[in-house]
């Protein structure tokens, strides 16, 4: 066994959370990052970024249809292998670029799966490493249902790497992954089934909005199987057959599991007295585990915040402040917007509609049809809507739900207004580019 190497901080996991810690500490400390798979983690290799590269091209096709009869003729077609090559033009450089960036900042990179030996020591393969601080940033992984033939199902990683477009596909689950990938597949030209074990799509979002989104997706040809479970998967000559709880057998070329992402906690946690709880590793409000020198950030934490890239990075930056002693306060999260990219997009931020129903004296809830706003008329988004939630006492915007093409833009502006605790009148002190989504904002407060 080689000599044990010592660092100030070791980060386990080279995704957005771990990288935020490593880059944040690199100037002041001797830092190492251990990565067992692809440097950069889920988001840029097999999550947000490749997904949105596919989505962008798919959305252009959907936008073409919105412009049909308004000056655009001819139907755009998806060339799936070329779309995959486009995705690879981005993703292929991520692992090496990330590792080079770390090395360039003086961070030691270690390849392999880390496991704890004691609160200050980890093992990677045959080597042992010690550190003052150890950060768990190991993220989460796709889950397949524990049913006969469950292994025949693919995951989001397989979908985002499909060399050709299967003619028929099924997605099991009704969360972010199932909705986003089903939308890409259907608008690329496949026949798509979405199988959900209850009647609820996207449980984080208000049902009035998820029902609208389901209607739009159904109109594009996605076949929803509500209150249905998959009991068995068998191989067929052309793909797989799914035995459904309603007695039907559904034959498709490919089927994908999208039933959630459990935390990666296979780290010999027992060696440091930690156990994984539902949702991941428990931390206090300083992101410390029960071992004060071991922190956890990102998707691996059991938390109430959404498991998203900017949240993981925020937590990583927070831990840097903790370790350097620059910040001793408990973590305070800003408002976190979240969005589903589903042609159109459904997003929300701040106070939830469910909360307003419980405190009607406190909030003004206003739903507006946006199809008459200049931007949505121009892009022919006939289903665009927003609900704003305003505090009755302060007149400040505190929450919003948006269903629209490019809802991310509107949602980001609303997030800034909420975070900065601005009253609506603040918009009058601002000169935006015209015409744009920002200039349309004045319609919100007519
Ligand atoms: C299909 C898909 C689409 C998504 N789209 C979005 C989106 O649009 N917007 C958004 O904000 N979020 C999105 N997400 C979520 C986002 O990818 C995650 O929230 C984010 O990557 C979490 O960062 P992390 O650093 O906590 O974990 P990860 O990015 O998962 O990184 C953890 C790293 O740790 C490594 N690791 C695990 N165990 C060990 C070990 N024992 N030793 C060493 N290394 C280990 C893993 O290999 C991995 O590289 C998406 C996720 C998926 C799957
Ligand atoms: N746009 C984005 O920001 C984005 C996109 C993709 C993923 N993500 C992140 O990835 C996480 C995981 O996404 P996801 O869609 O896999 O999980 P999810 O938790 O969002 O949804 C899981 C879905 O599977 C269903 N389900 C659970 N167990 C089941 C079972 N045994 N059989 C059938 N259905 C079952 C649930 O009812 C739910 O609809 C998200 O929570 C989010 O943090 C974010």
How does this structure look, described?
This protein is an alpha/beta fold. It contains 13 helices and 21 strands. Strands 1, 2, 3, 4, 5, 6 and 16 form a seven-stranded mixed beta sheet that branches. Strands 17-18-21-20-19 form a five-stranded antiparallel beta sheet, with helices on both faces. β7 (168-172), α7 (176-188) and β8 (191-195) form a beta-alpha-beta unit. α1 packs parallel to α9 (309-323) and α3 (48-67) packs across α4. It binds flavin-adenine dinucleotide and nicotinamide-adenine-dinucleotide (NAD). Residues 12-18, 34-38, 41-43, 47-48, 51, 113-114, 137-140, 156, 177, 264, 267, 298-300, 307-310, 312 line the site of flavin-adenine dinucleotide (FAD).
Strand-helix topology:
Blueprint: E1 5-12, H1 16-25, E2 31-35, H2 42-46, H3 48-67, H4 80-91, H5 94-104, E3 108-111, E4 114-118, E5 121-124, E6 127-136, H6 156-159, E7 168-172, H7 176-188, E8 191-195, H8 207-219, E9 223-225, E10 230-236, E11 239-244, E12 249-252, E13 254-257, E14 276-277, E15 280-281, E16 294-296, H9 309-323, E17 338-341, E18 345-350, H10 353-358, E19 363-369, H11 374-378, E20 385-391, E21 397-404, H12 407-419, H13 437-440
Parallel strand pairs: 1-2, 1-6, 2-3, 6-16, 7-8, 7-13, 8-9
Antiparallel strand pairs: 4-5, 5-6, 10-11, 11-12, 14-15, 17-18, 18-21, 19-20, 20-21
Helix pairs in contact: 1-9, 3-4, 3-7
The structure holds flavin-adenine dinucleotide (FAD) and nicotinamide-adenine-dinucleotide.
Flavin-adenine dinucleotide (FAD) binds at residues 12-18, 34-38, 41-43, 47-48, 51, 113-114, 137-140, 156, 177, 264, 267, 298-300, 307-310, 312.
